[in-house]
């Protein structure tokens, strides 16, 4: 390692997803089921609001906490969802920025952070970046958030429980009962409860439920990246206890500074734009893939997000299966990028119906090979 490089950076690797993206750029007409972002475009109303902001000169830094109209609108929505709770909110540079600030604000060296395995790739890396210790709770084979397993993992060093529902990479949604139980466990042990809810609008069966409803000290991260296809715009938001939010803002001042101001005006307009038709379309995509692949793969039907996390066929490991798929022009992500196990792979159904049809046909062929 170069002598100038900080030792903390050696505690985690670059994301393996990026390597798949690099490979995608080299293939001719691949069947790409790897990308974790919507395949629809940002609605025109949002684009127009952002363009208007740029043309009217709203291009400088915004206040660190975000432009007042957007922050007020998000806070009004939060107060409606969680009446009687004294929550504060700020606009972050994407939900990833919210995750970084959450970890830096709450995790000390040696603190343990509990989350499910499989997990979003950033979780263990960010915990280690802060000097913390990732504690991964095995959720195979059904990927359920099991409150008993969460409580069993708590030690005197536990600082935080991190939940993600709907989840990346599995698409599985935690039940209301399990989220209520975990909310109570976090309160009982006086540990932070961080809820990553970036896929909250991609919820296909029943109604979305947040553990913040039962734990007023829960910190919630959400945003516009997935719901409105604004992944490159970097507008998220975080709400939670005032003192925690104030600390996150203090760090944002010296790091991200603020979310891009023109994009914030677009996000303000996004709050008025219904994405129900897109969510309904993604529910159909989910149903199609589950119907096609269930006879050939062991999988749990996702209740949200836009991912499937099937088990590789036979005794073939996930990474080996993905190599075989890529050799046939199908881009998917090996499960060991999201897990300590190498048994599954991730499919994104954020793709055109034709791409899904081609992908399903090839996956069925690969399962029979």
Automatic annotation (TrEMBL):
PROSITE patterns registered for this protein in UniProt: AA_TRANSFER_CLASS_1 (PS00105)
Give the EC number: 2.6.1.-
Q: Enzyme group, top EC level?
A: transferase
Domain of life the protein comes from: Bacteria
Any idea which UniProt keywords this protein has? Aminotransferase, Pyridoxal phosphate, Transferase
- Name the coenzymes or cofactors required: pyridoxal 5'-phosphate
Quote the Pfam families the UniProt record gives. Answer: Aminotran_1_2
**Biological process GO annotation list?**
amino acid metabolic process
Q: Does the keyword Transferase apply?
A: yes
Record-annotated Aminotransferase class I/classII large domain positions:
29-361
| Molecular function (Gene Ontology), one example | pyridoxal phosphate binding
What InterPro entries does the entry give?
A: Aminotransferase_I/II_large, AspAT/PAT-like, NHTrfase_class1_PyrdxlP-BS, PyrdxlP-dep_Trfase, PyrdxlP-dep_Trfase_major, PyrdxlP-dep_Trfase_small
By sequence similarity, the record places it as follows:
Belongs to the class-I pyridoxal-phosphate-dependent aminotransferase family.
Task: Report what the protein is called.
Answer: Aminotransferase
Q: What species is this protein from? A: Rhodopirellula sallentina SM41
């Amino acid at each position: 390692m170069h002598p100038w490089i900080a030792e903390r950076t050696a505690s985690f690797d670059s994301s393996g997803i990026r390597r798949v993206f690099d490979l995608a750029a080299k293939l001719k007409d691949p069947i790409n089921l790897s990308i974790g972002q919507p395949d629809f475009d940002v609605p025109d109303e949002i684009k127009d609001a952002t363009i208007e902001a740029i043309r009217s000169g709203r291009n400088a830094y915004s206040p660190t906490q975000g432009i007042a109209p957007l922050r007020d609108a998000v806070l009004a929505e939060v107060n409606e969802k969680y009446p009687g709770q004294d929550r504060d909110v700020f606009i972050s540079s994407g939900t990833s920025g919210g995750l970084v600030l959450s970890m830096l604000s709450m995790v000390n060296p040696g603190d343990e952070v509990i989350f499910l395995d499989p997990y979003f790739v950033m979780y263990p890396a960010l915990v280690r970046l802060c000097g913390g210790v990732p504690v991964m709770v095995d959720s195979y084979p059904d990927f359920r958030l099991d409150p008993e397993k969460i409580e069993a993992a708590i030690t005197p060093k536990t600082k935080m429980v991190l939940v993600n529902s709907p989840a990346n990479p599995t698409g599985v949604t935690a039940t209301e009962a399990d989220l209520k139980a975990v909310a109570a466990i976090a309160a009982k042990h006086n540990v932070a409860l961080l809820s990553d809810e970036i896929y909250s609008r991609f919820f296909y069966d029943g109604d979305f439920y947040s553990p913040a409803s039962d734990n007023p000290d829960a910190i919630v991260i959400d945003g516009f990246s997935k719901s409105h296809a604004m992944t490159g715009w970097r507008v998220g938001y975080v709400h939670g206890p005032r003192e925690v939010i104030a600390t996150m803002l203090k760090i944002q001042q010296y790091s991200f500074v603020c979310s891009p101001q023109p994009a914030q005006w677009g996000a303000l307009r996004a709050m008025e734009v219904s994405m129900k038709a897109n969510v309904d379309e993604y529910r159909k995509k989910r149903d199609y893939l589950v119907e096609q692949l269930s006879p050939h793969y062991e999988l749990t039907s996702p209740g949200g997000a836009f991912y499937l996390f099937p088990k590789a066929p036979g005794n073939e490991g996930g990474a080996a299966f993905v190599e075989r798929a890529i050799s046939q022009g199908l881009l998917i992500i090996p499960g060991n990028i999201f897990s300590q196990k190498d048994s599954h792979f991730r499919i994104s159904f954020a793709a055109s119906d034709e791409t899904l049809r081609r992908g399903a046909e090839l996956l069925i062929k690969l399962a029979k090979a």
